[in-house]
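Hi R.,

Here's the chain you asked about this morning:
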Amino acid sequence: MVRVGIVGSTGRMGEHLINNVLDEERLELSALKLTALHVFDELKTAVPEDVFITNSMKAFLEHVDVVIDFSAPVATQELCEQALENPKALVIATTGFSEHQQNLLVEASKNMPVLYASNMSAGIALLKQLVEKVAETLTDFDIEIVEQHHRHKVDAPSGTALTLAEFAAKGRGLDLDAVRISGRDGQIGARTKDEIAVMALRGGDIVGRHTVGFYNDGEFIELNHTATSRETFSKGAIRAAKWIADKEPGLYSINDCLGI
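And the predicted structure, written out as tokens:
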């Protein structure tokens, strides 16, 4: 039995993760880390009495084998810092990291298995590969990415949209930081050949929709992925937790987990 701990248990994904872990025969819900950020600091989901609930990351790690993290960058940073002293298998789905926090993930992966994905769905995993292939093949087509999320999402563009843009840039042999555009306003001039636009829309309760468009004179192709339930992400994280439990230290992706 693999002991699973959840960081971000009081957030929007917390209820789904808790219920999905409890439904798995191979997994035991062993610990929940409550946030100290005073944003989502109340556990609203009923859990078995033997589940360890704490605000201490150090104490939390003592009760788990695998951690699933859907939280905030500052909480993930604390998780990685503490895990360097007490290594555990980590499944990280938090987005919006700073460069330092990204480097911390890499450093942690030298001592423990870390699976990081900005999106845990199988559909996005495959979409990334399709985007890279189309970008590489249709070199004269302009690339524009639009993502839509609920009104409560705090980072923009979404981590998934940026990941898709990275694969598009990879297909073209471009440095995304040099060509990414995330807004247009006023007399900006004609679109440059290499730019990759990543635009964010926010409203209502949209779980997540990503469109990668390839546009040329006379024709265009749009690749779409729409998440209709957060269960898509929680179940993907559960799959990742079961997969990574016995892996060697290293930095893994959801594609590694799915074998694609």
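The two ends are 27 Å apart (CA to CA).

Let me know if you need anything else.
M.
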